User: Fold this.
Amino acid sequence: MALKLRYAGNTDVGMKRTHNEDNLLVLQEENLYMVADGMGGHASGEVASEMAVNTLAEFYQETSADDDVTWPYKMEKERRYEENRLSAGIKLANLRIFETAAQDAAKRGMGTTLVAMSFAGNTAYLGHVGDSRIYRLRGEELTQVTSDHSLLNDYIKMKDLTPQEIENFPHKNVIVRALGMKETVQVDVAAEEPEAGDIYLLCSDGLNGEITDDVIQKLMIENRENLENGCDELIKAANKNGGKDNTTVVLVEVIEK
Assistant:
């Protein structure tokens, strides 16, 4: 039996940027939710993030409609079908962005992060590349359930940095993995069993780069009953705190199992 879900999403250019390179997409019939944060000059970041969410959505539509569709990548035996499906779709998005950038000088170097969640049966599947995040609010406890593919996070893992060293780290915006950078990409995929009442937040780093996890937690709890309002309040808080980047959020609540 499928989970019963409700969702809301919003994106905002922020206070400093002139255009929005983030994209979000919800494919309701597949219970698929995505946020991408593009990078690259001349608006090509926007192209990359749009290609990422559209390619993944198309892959889900094709594999749902026809069981005999040939997948572009082999299944990994140790992963479940839905984990493989999510991973293959993200790898395909990476390849399309990479090839587009290689063929068009104006788009050279474009790339994007991507976080995606799908729900099948009683299970939530999470896939990501880059430093966009997925959080889970369970009761009143907020947990970051993805691990940033960033230089800062690599340093934290290796060197056990102090809070002050983290705050003063000079290369906070450097990501070590993104879609479109190379012909192949490693995708982090995980599965977990959600509980009724869980709320998942997918966001670009325009959110967590401006407000702390404590503020995110407080706003999610306060707006638990109204997800649309929750999205607006999270973006408003990021903008109030500087809004240096585009901010995109998607909230997904598990209503019942």
Q: What stands out?
A: Residues 81-103 form the longest helix (23 residues).
